Amino acid sequence: MMQQAEIVLRGIVQGVGFRPFVKRTALKHNIKGLVENREFGVKIVAQADKETIEKFLDDILKNAPDVSTILSSQIEFIESYDKEFTTFSIAPSRKEGNVSALIPPDIATCDICSQEVMDSGDRHFSYPFTNCTNCGPRFSIIQSIPYDRTNTTMKKFIMCEDCKREYTTVADRRYHAQPNACPKCGPELRFVEIIDKEPTIIAMRQEALDTTIDILRKGKIVAIKGIGGYHLVCDAKNKDVVDTLRQLKHRPQKPFALMARDLEVVQEYCQLSSQEEKMLSGQQKPIVLLQKKNQELEHIAPGVKNLGFMLPYTPLHYLIFRHFHLLIFTSGNISEEALENRDLSAYEHLSRITKYYLTYNREIFNRIDDSIVTYVGNQRILIRKARGFIPKPIKLDEMQVMPQIFAAGADMKGSFGLTKHDIFLGSQYLGDLGFASNSEFYEESLGYFKSIFGMEPEVVIADAHPNYFSTQFAKEYASEKELPIHYLQHHEAHIYSVMAEHNLQKALGISFDGTGYGNDGQIWGGECFIVDKNHVERFSHLAYKPLISGEKVAQEPWRMALIYLHSCCPDKIGRLIPASKFPQRDLLVHQLERAHTGIMTSSIGRLFDAVASILDVCHYNTYEGEAPMKLEALVDVTYADSYGYEISNGIIDPTNMINEIVEDFIRKKPVEIIASRFHFTIARMIYDLCKKMSAVSNIRDVAISGGVFQNSVLIHILKNLFADTEYIVHFNENVPPNDAGIALGQAYSCLLKEN
Prior knowledge:
The chain is an alpha/beta fold and 755 residues long. Among the domains are: 2-90, Alpha-Beta Plaits (2-Layer Sandwich); 189-373, DHBP synthase; 393-488, 2-Layer Sandwich (Nucleotidyltransferase, domain 5), CATH 3.30.420.360; 544-692, ATPase, nucleotide binding domain (Nucleotidyltransferase, domain 5). It contains 23 helices and 31 strands. A hairpin with a 2-residue loop joins strand 15 and strand 16 (379-384). Helix 13 crosses helix 23.
């Protein structure tokens, strides 16, 4: 018997070729009806017998486009209906209620489009903005929902007859591809040079690309506009231009991101696992941190074990890499400031670095940087979550009460989050919110997320640090909207972020990082918690040390080394921290001798800094995490011997460890062995702490988070140490373990509180 069914699909089902896919599937099953984009996702009206419709829906759910994400599906059969359909069509988009549809991330160029760009017989030959329903810009160009061309920054480009034909032909892979364009009707390249302080168009289209290639070959830096913002680009093997870029960008040691022509080039310099290869080549194409195979590119990432590689992910990249094997592709911004995405702003701010720009006349509506990923075996660790991953939702298990929450996140690596129904939507990486351009980026992005996803928060939650920009903003937002606001301690939020990902309501929490405002007003960073739903007990922490010098301690690891040496073995200070090398040493010693009160820290991150300085690996951090990264580079993960430490009355005392490290160093034991032994000690310490916490709580799930756990060597050791034990160890997988993952933990804690 002929029936009609209404099918509602929610998730990322717009902007991924979903309606054309549904139509092709309907034709295969001889289904009549329609599919339309709606404010909640996609609605399908299907007419056929019940069994056929059920097979049709099953086919959709099993074979949906790879770039889509179906979060829920509903079907309702209607035996009596008014209209008989004679075909299956894609109906115009409709919006009748509150928006709850999701939009896709930007998608790397597919293989077919990249082949067309290289095919001299194809009409897309050498066209840098070629795309289809399977690839191309999405998040960066979408201004509103439903996802139609008129709601994107492509609206000013009117499709030519050829593009219209592709757009309206069911069998064509550009059927309903909203950014579809070609050389006749789409965006075009421009090469701009700053002459007498004025941006001047020097060349257009192919000539603009040719000029860029020529400038790069001459050893110059070019600012190139990408999908989500500008990159600063230069020849990676030309040490002179790399040194120039370091000077102009004020990055004397920080690694640069690299783009390689293909996997073969990457394999010349790095070891490559199957998981890493898959991520490099997939739809997201982030920067992947890979272990160096040799020292040929030491000037790109001095003193660390990894190089950050990505492969071309736009047609423009493919066209550039017809002429190069390897280029630096680093974020186009002034150090620590927001990524440049608007042409006039880029001309103004990046002119101190370069006077050459390869740009185009399509607006980037949402700026978004490159994501960064690393692997420990098959375990993925997100270091920076941005292009390719945002705005993918994280599904939260349904609770009885699911308010809309605005989670403000933290400041060092800004990223907020919003919840609606049973999903969490986190923002892209927004940078250090202590900088005005990043705080403006934060406000701009929040406005967009609220608008595009139709969100009106009912509850606000923020970090407990009273001086964070994000906390102050959340406080003002809650006051203005007359909303309740909650505050959550930084390290507790880290643990809740892991619990949210793994649907845990109880956990043993290990939260290690550099800095976080503690509930006692001190600076925490080496914290162990027992978490039972909304009850958190601070079970143990690293012994407090006086935080003399304030923020300089994080910038100059020798100061933290001095603090530990003064506490553990003051007679060794002269040998390891000579006054001739560190002129302020004696002043700090005097302050330490008088320091009985004041700000204290329990930071494991600062302990890593101290050990790196004691071992003469790094005395000054020219970028965040430099000392621990250089220490990590020395580790042999097979080394399994630990230094001494004590855990008593909730205090982790590393005195024995520091003394033994100092003795080993003075006796000239290889720093590789000392660094390996130190890392194993931290892992062993975590295991012992879990045993102690488990004994009093009977909890076996372990949630591990915090910036220290960006250290892939430490995670490798931990995985081996906990293997075949009674504990189930959980790490962050869909948000970074650093501050950018805080918002998820805040939101989950708030949900537990509400339930």
